From TrEMBL:
It is found in: Membrane. The keyword Electron transport does not apply. Belongs to the 1-acyl-sn-glycerol-3-phosphate acyltransferase family. Keywords: Acyltransferase, Lipid biosynthesis, Lipid metabolism, Membrane, Phospholipid biosynthesis, Phospholipid metabolism, Transferase, Transmembrane, Transmembrane helix. It comes from Biomphalaria glabrata (Bloodfluke planorb). It comes from the Eukaryota. Pathway: Lipid metabolism; Phospholipid metabolism. Residues 56-101 are annotated as: Disordered. CDD domains: LPLAT_LPCAT1-like. One of its GO terms (biological process) is triglyceride biosynthetic process. This is Glycerol-3-phosphate acyltransferase 3-like isoform X1.
Length: 452
């Protein structure tokens, strides 16, 4: 009797689930929405606001800081240009204390003799760099000013009250027992549809019909995949969207590709992989031209550059999507752009991406989590909410080298996305500081010394 009741209950729940999944697929196929996700996001913001008021009252000395944090969490993702400039200037000045300090020292005095006390100047700058480290903290999850009912939060907010603990438990049940299975189902359908559709398109001869068909099925597949994260994406300035050439963007997560591919079709460039990721790569390559290279070819920069240049010279091919940082940064800043893509083309289409961290952490910390774990973390978060800005195409100036061009594009992306513009190499996540970077303060100091 009990088994029959269980089967009946599951059968009763099965039909609504099928209807909801079918509705999501149909809406994703049409590229439309009936507003359920946006209403869900607004509801979660109200829940966060209610939970924030349950935080214990701070001491009198901390009240002013807490008020500022509460005002900050109420703001929209889009920051004012004035605030962006102030943040950029502040972090730029602290991004390299030793270099900045030496430049100021050089500005304030003329040539001088070497003195033993100069060693203390370098020690002071070194201590400043350790205390105000703006590099390594970009490789870990950003802290939030208030609790968003997820596991990752400030330690002082782990337990606030029995009521909030009960609410957190309810949230866990909703995220892991309802949202996660539903999202995994949607993701499975999206991936299968991507593989099947690209396999079918691969049998067609190269023509404008094949390109249009690939665009239709590609947008459909990635929109379905975006629904697997409950993605709420706001695209700005779509008139600047790239139709060919090279498109560059800041990089927070592998999901960036899915986010951008919901609105435009791109060709990918990267190293060939095996396993499930290799299946996806081969599926994409059947439908249209992508640039996949072997591990042995990755060291040959000239070969990769030639293939990239050949691709962008063909106006019938899709724009190439590149993340010049070369690694994922934690949604707070933009780090040094590699110059390779800026040597190949004199016209670049920049894109800025900014996630709302209140709904979940989109940053992929590859040193702690593998690709599958990262995707499961996003799927078990409240939602994936972000803004995407298409910037006007930027052209290399006369007598401007690739490094200067890359830095100029990076600065525009940081300014538009409300991110901090840093000159450091994102490769510092896994590598030591390059000798060339260590030589900069040495050269600045040597210019201050008198030479007979």
């Amino acid at each position: 009797m009990g088994e029959q009741l269980l089967i009946a209950a599951l059968s009763f729940l099965f039909l609504p689930v099928i209807i909801v999944v079918a509705l999501v697929i149909i809406l994703a196929t049409c590229g439309t929405s009936i507003g359920i996700r946006k209403a869900y996001v607004k509801l979660m913001l109200k829940v966060f606001e209610a939970c924030k008021h349950k935080v214990p009252v701070p001491s009198p000395g901390e009240q002013d800081n807490d008020t500022e944090e509460e005002n900050e969490i109420k703001q929209d993702n889009t920051l004012s240009d004035a605030k962006q400039d102030n943040e950029d200037q502040a972090d730029k000045s602290s991004s390299s204390p030793s270099v900045k300090g030496l430049e100021q020292l050089d500005f304030g005095m003329s040539k001088k003799e070497f003195e033993l006390s100069d060693v203390m100047t370098f020690a002071k700058f070194g201590m400043e760099a350790i205390i105000d480290d703006t590099v390594t903290k970009r490789f870990s999850a950003e802290e939030l000013p208030s609790w968003n009912l997820l596991t990752r939060t400030q330690k002082d907010h782990q337990f606030m009250s029995i009521r909030l603990t009960a609410l957190w438990c309810v949230g866990c049940f909703v995220r892991y027992a309802i949202l996660l299975p539903f999202r995994i189902t949607i993701a499975f359908i999206g991936v299968m549809w991507l593989i099947i559709s690209t396999a079918f398109i691969g049998y067609l001869r190269e023509s404008s019909f094949k390109r249009k068909l690939n665009e239709f099925f590609s947008l459909m597949s990635f929109r379905i995949l975006c629904r697997a994260f409950s993605g709420v994406i706001t695209f700005h300035n779509r008139e600047n969207m790239a139709k060919n050439g090279i498109c560059v963007a800041n990089h927070t997560s592998p999901v960036d590709v899915i986010i951008l591919s919901c609105d435009n079709c791109y060709a990918m460039i990267g190293q060939s992989h095996g396993g499930f990721l290799g299946v996806i790569q081969r599926s994409l390559a059947r439908a249209t031209a992508h640039i996949w290279f072997e591990r042995s070819e990755a060291k040959d920069r000239g070969l990769v550059a030639r293939r990239l240049k050949s691709h962008i010279e063909d106006k019938n091919k899709l724009p190439v999507l590149i993340f010049p940082e070369g690694t994922c940064i934690n949604n707070t800043s933009v780090m040094m752009f590699k110059k390779g893509s800026f040597e190949v083309s004199s016209v670049i289409y920049p894109v800025a991406i900014k996630y709302d961290p209140r709904f979940g952490d989109a940053f992929w910390n590859s040193s702690k989590h593998n690709w599958t774990q990262h995707l499961l973390q996003i799927m078990s978060s409240w939602a994936l909410v972000c803004d995407v800005w298409y910037l006007p195409p930027m052209t290399k100036l006369e007598n401007e080298d690739a490094v200067a061009f890359a830095n100029r594009v990076k600065s525009e992306i940081a300014k538009k996305g409300g991110l901090v513009d840093l000159d450091w190499d994102g490769g510092l996540k896994r590598e030591n500081v390059k000798e060339s970077m260590k030589e900069v303060p040495q050269e600045l100091y040597s210019k201050m010394l008198k030479v007979d």
